[in-house]
Write the structure tokens for this entry.
Amino acid sequence: MSTADRTVVRGGLVVTAADEMHADVLIEGGRIAALAAHDSDTAAGWTAGTVIDATGKYVIPGGVDGHTHMQMPFGGTTASDTFETGTRAAAWGGTTTVVDFAIQGVGASLRAGLDAWHAKADAQCAIDYGFHMIVADVNDKTLAEMDTLVEEGVTSFKMFMAYPGVFYSDDGQILRAMQRASGNGGLVMMHAENGIAIDVLVQQALAAGKTDPRYHGEVRHALLEAEATHRAVQLARVAGSPLYVVHVSAEQAVAELAAARDLGLPVFGETCPQYLFLSTDNLAEPDFEGAKYVCSTPLRPREHQAALWRGLRTDDLQVVSTDHCPFCFSGQKELGRGDFSKIPNGMPGVEHRMDLLHQAVVDGHITRRRWIDIACAAPARMFGLYPRKGTIAPGADADVVVYDPHAEQTLSASTHHMNVDYSAYEGRRLTGRVETVLSRGVPVIEQQAYVGRAGHGQYTPRGICQYL
Ligand SMILES: [Zn+2]
């Protein structure tokens, strides 16, 4: 390794899920080679072709976003970020790995769905990526394919208790997939909402003339999230499988997860920035503006936020992902004017997760190390990517972010990099900003300029969940 091929990040405060230390970081061949105390002779002796001055900054692992939907077909349209634009936006916000969802078509194989998603992402991504598999059609062949996918590095399978007629699986299908996962090491990820009951409430609301976006939140009742979460936990217990509940938003659902974890069950939960920072107040914005905030599970009254923050502090929730699934207001969200059930479900967010969670550090909700845990280390462990991703340690990929904790920024659609015509956080002022991003040692963002390229990001096969 010649000196020219080495990078040293000097003078920053290295923050991982475990430690905070004033250390210089030596990068060789795309990996972390060593850390040494900033004032040590060892660090002083390191020579490198590239030296990044991180004085006064944090040096943190690149974010791992375990829940994105780039260019996903849904609700008669397609999510507006491609793998190219979405992963570029992720990099702008300090995220260096995404795990996206390949989708099995009903009547088709898992393999066909996975191949289709590989074709979309191949040579397009600015940062590394992996895939979960959405299982939409449980049958003997699907179940056998699950074993193969786990061996290939697609080790998690998402199922839906919501969306009858689209992705929905009934309890028997869910149980069969969980039984299979209990034997092959796979992790079942659950969209936990009682979709059958919700669809009744949707029809009743529309029949009563309640068509505005805010009714999306009312019909997707918090108790129907809690009920489905409870049912998913019991099905997983019967099957002897672990369970990961995605996008938890209701206080009562957090309670179900906490109760399961108090029993020692391998049950995990994720929430998203939109549930921590936004509420039904946004869904009620006039002139159809509330459509910008339509996603499922829905935004909740702000009283639910305290339970989510508490869950993140107590580890009853382990991960914050974005569920990034952007649809433009113009021409996409507008499909649901006059009928909230036709508003494409999903919100943009992949760019701002690290910053919003840093704001939570500033606001006193979580510690710095917990910030890195829920945004980097825990998702890497959950999805079998640790310690290659999610930390700064010898041998890890050099996915490194230099983060300025004092910089001020204002979020806006006019300055963000996601391919969507609105920001869910328009005008929100945040303290903290990404300055430089390395992906496997290669600069992607340099002093707040994009220097990456489509195709740098590599497909990353995953191991099994590392919490089991
Ligand atoms: Zn999702």
Remarks:
- The chain has a mean pLDDT of 97.
- Residues 67, 69, 323, 325 surround zinc ion (CB under 6 Å).
- Residues 267 and 427 are 37 Å apart (CA to CA).
- The radius of gyration is 21 Å.
